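so the lab meeting is tmrw and i was supposed to have these ready like two days ago... anyway. pasting both below. for each one the top line is the aa sequence and the line under it is the structure tokens. i havent really looked at them closely yet so no promises
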Amino acid sequence: MKYITLFICMLLLWLLLTFNLHSANIIIGIVASLVVMMLFGNKFFKDWQKFYNPLRYLWGIVYLIFFIWECLKANFDVAYRVLSPKMPIKPGILKVKCTLKSDIAKTFLANSITMTPGTITVDVIDNHLFVHWIYVSSQDPNVYTKKIAGRFEKLLKKVFE
């Protein structure tokens, strides 16, 4: 079942990347997915049963909507800082504690922070993310962790763990 899961994921990825439903493209996608499945099937999807949990996909959609909302808010915040005559910025690199267990969840968290304007994930070491923030509003680790990662962590736990 693990191999079928990998095959389905690779074929869906192929179809999303090529965005072409012609028969030749589908056949090439099937062949490429089979090759990937045979070569790398034993290295991926240790917890492949989670893949078939429909509730995770619902939380993924909720996460996507929440992420878009946070990006819009951050865009307006950065635009205000750029257009303001005094340009109120106070940049800094913060060590943010991460409570996520899986590597894919940490990767999604780091990428979500980076794709939100005004922040960029510089490094991930163990359970800590080093984040450059355009306006460090607090020196308390609990406060800035909640502001930066807390927004996304709760939903990512429901999607990936």
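ok protien two:
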Amino acid sequence: MGNNAELQEVISESAIRDLVRRYAHCVWQKDAAVAAELFAEDGVMDTGDRPPLEGRAAILREYTQTFETSGFYPFLHNHVIDLLGDRASGTAYIELRAEVDGVRMEGYGWYEDEYVQTPAGWKFQRRRLNLAHYGPVGS
């Protein structure tokens, strides 16, 4: 692999890691509009506990409603990325703190991600949350 290809891989990996960090930042800040923009137009968000949200517009609607009543505070770790040209896949591990309907919740698990490079940069094509544990604090 030539230097240019290696440099492009480093740039892509950095951009994908930033995408994942920006998503967590948007969730903390309850910024549904910017969170939705991190997905491809036909991107999918699958929380694992309801039907997947298909398309940026559906993600925006759901996040807007959810962020009005609940707070989610993700901490992301151990991000692994596999580049495949203008596509990539990855896993990011999550510790989650939340407040839902006045109840403090906690959990942990991982995101399974598919990324796509678009003219606007790297975006989530598909994101699936897998929680190994999620419940009231102390449960």
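from a quick look at the 2nd one: The mean pLDDT is 96. The chain has one domain: 3-136. will dig more after coffe
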